[in-house]
Design a protein that fits this description.
With 334 residues, this protein is mainly alpha-helical. The protein contains ten helices and eight strands. The strands form four sheets. A two-stranded antiparallel sheet has the order 1-2. Strands 3-4 form a two-stranded antiparallel sheet. The radius of gyration is 25 Å and the shape is globular.
Amino acid sequence: MLPITCLCQYQVSFPGLGIHDLSVSRIAFDFNLFGRHVTIYWYGLLFAVALLLCMVLAVQQAKAHRLKGDDILDFFLLMIPFMVIGARLYYVAFEWDAYKENPARILDITEGGLAFYGGVIGGMIALFIIAHVKHIKVHHLLDYIAVYVPLGQGIGRWGNFFNQEAFGINTDLPWGMISEGTKSWLTGINPDPANPLPGLDPNLPVHPTFLYEFLANMIIFAILLAVRRKSDKYPYRTMFSYFLLYGLTRFFVEGIRTDALVFTMFGQEIRISQLVSLAMVVISVVFLVVLAIRDKQREKVLVSLQDAEDTGLLMLFGPEKPLQVDDVVIVEDS
């Protein structure tokens, strides 16, 4: 485990923007409850706010998308524990050396340690359960919920800012960030702090990757809102659009982060999230292309059937017998 000191208070600066010594605390507020001191951290508070906002929006907009608000509420209530457990187990699985001597630390998430892709796995399990129990088409629920994922992610990323974690390598861009947190981390991961590795100088600003993901996720959220309007006509397109757009974002961001989860293969360190992101992009592109081809073929069939109807060929089949081509069926109204 790296000898990194976790602070509660940081002085954060963005030298290129003329912002210096911005006081940032990991703690949002604390209070006494029945004689016990309770501390609320920004990381957990923002996580809760993100979930609550997404839940409220999803429940409110459910009826417009032929879903029941109660079903969406049930999904969120099931998803939250599944997502947290999945995110934590995913992180711990790749950082086991830091927990094996004291497994009880696995239950402490106040300092972070939640991996997004693990949360996605947990959330997907909850979604399939709800779809089965509530008799909802899986693609309908997937396309509907996918829109809110980047909104929640974007808000949650500010928790990384308050924790001063999940940042990138050195940068000379105007928005480069530096604090006690960045200095402590970069000092700890350098074999020889006096001669820092390229891009890992503790005395230089770093990429605020939390900000990159926040901005990207807000853009993705806006795009998915537009895509979802046609989700009934194009099933799965919203979901795969999310995987494609976020996969591209995460692949880039993960490439410059200094705290990426890694595993070793053939003597080379592989960034896990970057590998998963690449797989997401490839799979999404393939499926989106297949879906586009299928939709185009269906449109051609519909046009052909309409032409046939206009020329009177449907009369050959009689008013009670539908004309069927592949999976497209046209039935004459009586």
